[in-house]
Each structure stands twice: as structure tokens, then as C-alpha cells.
Amino acid sequence: MDQITKEVTAQVHKMRELHERMAKGEFEELNTYYSKNFIGYLYMPKNDIVEQMNYEAITTGNCNAANFYKGKDIQFKYSGLTIIPQASEQVAVSYEILFKEQDIQVKALSLEVWKKEYDGIWRMIRWYEEKGSATLREGGMDAD
Q1: What phi and psi, each to the nearest 5 degrees, are found at residue 71?
Q2: Residue 24, number of CB atoms within 10 A of its CB
Q3: Mind listing the pLDDT tens digit of every residue in the chain (144 residues)?
Q4: C-alpha of 71 from chain center
Q5: pTM of this prediction?
Q6: CA atoms of 137 and 6, how far apart (whole Å)
């Protein structure tokens, strides 16, 4: 695994951990993983719409999500991580997400572009996430 892949893999895994910290009402560190030039799209099947987001919208959304999930038992599982270098300071990233909360689960596919910015930090600059509908799942939080 080359250095770029190692660095971005670490960022993606840290971002997963930070999403789970929303259960503690934390979101500030998560928001540092987005570029100020961020642009993203999120498909929400319940409303059958694709939401467009910029940096302000995604960071505000993370704050709202942290308030909503505070005190709840949530898990994010990532699988199938693929990192494709596009340039010396930019990569395309994709992976599957399995979100679990109580008796529901939501599957999603995330496609992202990460860029090493002026300060040497890798941040997400573009994002598209396609969420599936929420489904009931069997067992407790540790069941797959």
C-alpha cells in the first residue's frame, strides 16, 4: 500500500469513528474533514430527492445529526473501501456503509474525492451518497 492510500485510508476510518461520536453530541472534529470548497449530493429515498450540499450545509447537517443522535446507540460499518489515486494530491474513494440504530439499518454507497490541501491535510472535496430505504434488522446492535 502506497503512502497516499495509507493516509486516505486512515482519514476515512477516522471519519467513520467520528460519525459514531454523534451519539455523544460531538461533531466539531468531524467537520474539519470537509474542505471549505466541499460540494456534495445525498439521495434520500424517503423523499425521493437528491440534496445538494456545500461546506456550510454539510457542517450544519452534522451539527443537527449530532443533536438528533445524542444518547442513542448508533453504528457505522464500512466495507469494500477502494481508493484510486487521480493525482499526487487527489484520490477517488468509494465504500459501502451499513448504518445501524436500534432495530433499523440503512445501507448506502459513498463516492468521494479527497484532496491534500494547502496545509497538508487530506479533506473531502466532493461527495455523492446513495442511501437505501431503512429496513428492520434482526438481533441487537452486534448482530449483522
Answers
A1: 85, 0
A2: 11
A3: 699 999 999 999 999 999 999 999 999 999 999 999 999 999 999 899 999 999 999 999 999 999 999 999 999 999 999 999 999 999 999 999 999 998 999 999 999 999 999 999 999 999 999 999 999 985 554 544
A4: 20
A5: 0.90
A6: 33
Cα angle 116, 120, 52 (rounded to 5 degrees) comes to: 40
Phi, psi (rounded to 5 degrees) for 62: -65, -40
Altogether, the residues listed in the chain come to a count of 144
| Class in CATH terms, 3-136 | alpha beta
| Domain assignments of the chain as residue spans, ordered by start | 3-136
**Cβ 94 vs Cβ 114: under 8 Å:** no
